[in-house]
Amino acid sequence: MIEPRLPRFQWCQQVLASVDLYNDGSHPDVPEDHLLIPAGGVGEIVQIGHHEEANLPVYMVDFGLAVIGCMEDEIELDTRLGSLVAGAVAAMPACITATSAALAIGTPGGPAAAALAA
Predict the structure, then answer these.
(1) Do 72 and 87 reside in the same domain of the chain?
(2) Which among 45, 90, 96, 98 counts the fewest CB atoms within 10 Å?
(3) What pLDDT is recorded for position 97?
(4) Does the predicted model carry a pTM greater than 0.90?
């Protein structure tokens, strides 16, 4: 027996459609070959299955308008949020990031400790 190939993506990851996604007949209320999600559409992986015959992972992706089964070559990881967060943190004044770090770490005598003592 061949071991199932491990998925590249995980549940709850935000992904982008890397190609236009058309109805292959899986959505009976929509005409076949109708464009469901254009390339660049944002979705979230809500389930991961396995195509036995092809030995490939299949991802159920919620694009908001529809949940679509996608293969790995039809989606890509959405890294835009990570870039936005990194850019926003880099743009913060040093006093804000230091305070945030003290709150997160719970530095003795820091703002978190003072708030707990009050």
Answers:
(1) no
(2) 90
(3) 47
(4) no
**Is residue 74 over pLDDT 60?**
yes
Q: Long-range contacts of range 93-97, CB-CB < 8 Å, 24 or more positions apart?
A: none
Strands (E), 2-118: 14-17, 21-22, 35-37, 42-51, 56-62, 67-70, 75-77
Q: Which of 71, 92, 117, 43 is nearest to 108 (CA)?
A: 117
Do the Cβ atoms of 18 and 39 come closer than 8 Å?
Answer: yes
- For residue 94, give its domain range: 83-117
Locus of tokens 């743009």:
91
Long-range pairs for 26-35 at CB < 8 Å and ≥24 separation? 26/68, 26/69, 27/66
Q: Does residue 110 fall inside a structural domain?
A: yes
